[in-house]
Write a structure and sequence with these properties.
By secondary structure, this protein is an alpha+beta fold. The protein folds into two domains: about 40 residues; about 100 residues, 2-Layer Sandwich (GMP Synthetase, Chain A, domain 3), CATH 3.30.300.20. Helix content is about 30%, strand content about 35%. The protein is built from three helices and six strands. Strands 1-2-3 form a three-stranded antiparallel sheet, with no helix packed on it. It starts with 7 loop residues before the first strand and ends with a strand. The mean pLDDT is about 95. InterPro entries: KH_dom-like_a/b, OsmC/Ohr_fam, OsmC/Ohrsf. This is Putative redox protein. Pfam families: OsmC (PF02566).
């Protein structure tokens, strides 16, 4: 069993710093309206970054193994919060955008599907509390 541990420390006002098992730090802060100074990422949005990052690492690895050529890709996550407290994401849509010449759409679709359905643990976590949908977009240049 793998156990990940992070330590998050208060710095000042609403600013926190959190470590990561990789040794890197991330700053977490609130908006000025909530007493923060916009000096870090917002906690809920950081969850969306984790979702995109998890799936993005899967897709990059799978496309490399499949020898699929592309110029770049980006993942845009749109999420809707509930109205009542505690507010949480109940609808999440993940858009995968691929850019390149003569994109191998079939292989790219397969790589994304493997990430979404099999490999991305963060995606599975989100499914426990949200409706998650995905869509692939191809931008042949």
């Amino acid at each position: 069993m793998t156990l990940d541990t992070v330590t998050t420390k208060w710095k000042t006002d609403m600013l926190l710093v959190s470590d990561n098992p990789s040794g890197q730090n991330v700053f977490i802060d609130a908006s000025p309206e909530s007493g923060g100074h916009n000096e870090g990422l917002r906690p809920k949005a950081l969850m969306l970054s984790s979702l995109a990052g998890c799936s993005g690492l899967d897709v990059a690895s799978l496309l490399k193994k499949m020898k699929v050529e592309f110029d770049t890709f980006e993942i845009i996550v749109e999420a809707e919060l509930t109205e009542e407290h505690p507010k949480y994401y109940h609808k999440v849509h993940v858009n995968y955008h691929f850019y390149g010449n003569n994109l191998a759409e079939g292989k790219i679709n397969k790589a994304v599907k493997l990430s979404v359905d099999k490999y991305c643990g963060v995606m599975e976590m989100f499914r426990q509390f949200a409706t998650v949908t995905t869509q692939n977009h191809f931008h042949n240049q």
